[in-house]
Fold this protein.
Amino acid sequence: MRLRILSRYPGFRLLDIIMPTFIAAMPILLGQAIGGGAVRAAQNFQANTGTTNYVAYLLIGSNVFMMVSGTMWNVGYWLRREAETGTLEALYLAPTGRGAILAGIALYGNLRMMVNFILAFTLGALVFGVNPLQGDILLALVFLFIGLIPLFGIALLYGAIILRIKEANALIRLAQWAASLLMGLFFPIAIFPGWLRFIALAFPPTWMNNGVRASLLGVGFFFEQWYFDLAMLGAFCVIVPLLGYRLFIRTERSVQRDAGVGEF
Amino acid sequence: MSQKIQPQTSNLQLPISNLQIYLAMVRKQLIVMTRYPIDFLTSFVQIFLIILLFSFAAIMFESPGASASGESSGSGAVMMYGFVLFMFASDTLWSIGYNIREEQYQGTLESLYLTPASKFASLVSRVTTIVIWTGLLSIAAIIFVQFFLGRLPFHNVGLAAVILVFTLAGTFGIGFAFAAYTLLVKESAQATANFLEFAIMILCGMFFPFRALPEIVQMISRAIPLSYAVDAFRSTLMGYPRGFPELAPIETEIAIVIAFGILSPIIGYWLYQRAERRARIVGSLAEF
């Protein structure tokens, strides 16, 4: 059903695909201006990050960010839309398990984000003249797929916030900027002071983003070996969705008790 | 026997009553804004997060020791002053359209338009409070960024303020045109705004010098008056260092900005009136 709704808005689909290229274009152009040309920019970037391929580095960052942002919004936006169109209360009265509905929402989100990632990354690579088929693509895809699971847990946390405070757009926007900073959208998190690096490492998308970059560009995994980083992401896969689901159900029950499901 | 109805207000009273309407609507907007303190706080924090994000990105491209040599404050000024103008332009460009949508959602647009209040004052009032808030945010952001990138050059403040005022008037005009577009396309306006916001960031060189753009993109930039406003504003504040302004001599850029500031609101408001009339004729003013 969600896919059918999406198919009715070609503008949004197009935006999904071109947005990461726009986002990456800004630091790329800024970097070239600061470095004094593409060659010097690449040299400086290598000194700071370990790769000369700053275009691919930034493209990966912006595409993973769009994936994170889209998944985070997925549950919250769905809840808000159902509430505004007046169908949320009716949906809650239907004899369908909550798990099945949420799984459907997650499947839709994951499918959309994976297709977007592939198309947007290819488009960005074509626009900036970078080879999209470099490094260990299979490993990068594994990091992406595994990373989507804790992301869904974070999306449930977002959903709980939306259920509770309803018009939470400002908070969500702020959270998106915070997420982009923590996951190292344009830079490695090694640049952060110790306390901020600790917070960034507790945020699953940071591992997902670095995993994809390290697989494709060889910038180095946090634990030196890919399987340790993947194991860490695996641990997040267990903890975050459980935490998110419990909080979501708790908030949902509390909102139902306060007769606030249909309100918006 | 027909009796001609006399107007209730004289020519002198009309501007005064319009001003009163404008002030009353600004007050209403302010009251609405103060009822959402979280929005205030998040917009404040958000600015710092954006600055941090781009400052860290800029640092990645600096040669080792650039910060110590003061090299980074030049690029920081290009980025920061562009960002300040972007914040103002972004407010004026989209706020009018968003507010129109909000009134449609709340079901108050049609009744508001049945009152004898000036529509122009109503539209402008929607941006006034946001522009004041953005001014305060900009000052805070400039102070904050100096901790990261060193002391920013700060020259010709008076002329820069004049350029800013005409730029805002110009973006008001585009804001009216966008509000007209919002009345016509309704929900799809959001996607267009998102797309245009990023397109403007790049085409108008908000965060980087124009020379970083490929030649073909620069040609498009030169066709957009806002690009000259960005270039003139930051070059003026930077004291016209070598290579700035980039698009044209400063006199030419200022002339373009003034023409933009005068013509754009006239054309934009005319477009808005046409769209509004059309919406009334087809009965879609209250639809959303």
Notes: The CA atoms of residues 225 and 282 of chain B lie 34 Å apart. Residues 71-106 of chain B form the longest helix (36 residues). The interface with chain A takes residues 36, 38-39, 42-43, 45-46, 49-50, 52-54, 56-64, 72, 75, 78-79, 188, 191-192, 194-195, 198-199, 201-202, 207-209, 211-213 of chain B (CB under 8 Å). Chain B has a mean pLDDT of 85.
